[in-house]
Amino acid sequence: MSYLGTTQTLFVNEVSNEGAYLDGHELGEVFLPSHEIKEPLEAGDSVSVFIYLDHANLATATTKKPIAQVGEFALLRVKEINSIGAFLDWGLEKDVLAPFNEQKPKMQEGHSYLVRLYLDNASQRICASSNFNKFINKTEPEYTKFQEVELIVAGKTDLGYKVLINEAHIGVVYYNTVFKKLFVGQCLKGYIQKIRDDGKVDVLLEKPGMSKVSDLGETIIAKLKSEGGVIHLGDKSDPEAIRKAFSTSKANYKKAIGGLFKQGLIDIEAKSIRLK
At what angle do helices 250-262 and 210-226 cross, to 10 degrees? Predict the structure, then answer.
């Protein structure tokens, strides 16, 4: 079975000067233009291609890799806006449409937005949507406390960063728990802090407790070795300097270097630490 908006391996039915005609199963014959053919093909060969509709709405194949496929999230830039919606650059000659009713917020030319690609059932057109409520799981979240999850940064709120959790639920990472730069579209790991009574999910970026400190301790030791055995960040150092160096809070840093000191691995001074 062949699906629009996905990368698949198809067999060649026929080759001409214009290109190759591929067996697209339910889609019928799919054309691969000659300028997309990287190696010589003949009937019976197989080729990995991405399938989409061209400007004439015909199923067409390309060997190029789009930034995202149907069912995936991606940060895409708006190239043009017309009477039907915004057209986003996804790495192919034909831009992908974000209809006005799928834009939350309303898109502006030249700006980039986190969107999910989907196949519109009525038109069979590959489209983009920033209306995440359309795609998230409608069931109550059932995460356990401190469970590790995959996050995609979706935007900012007054309280913190809105994130997609395992592409299934929406959560919030509060500003006062963030110690590194985040950007919309960024993928990273997180940890469930709690599920509130209203079903909303609070998320942490740092592993809670001593397990986080242990990981940070390994990072500090590696940094010490690369810096000749001395780092000019100690007990009394500025929290912002610690955040920039290790993307963590001063409290976590002090716990980590305290643990390394107890193990006899480092000496701690007010403004520096050094390997023993």
Answer: 80
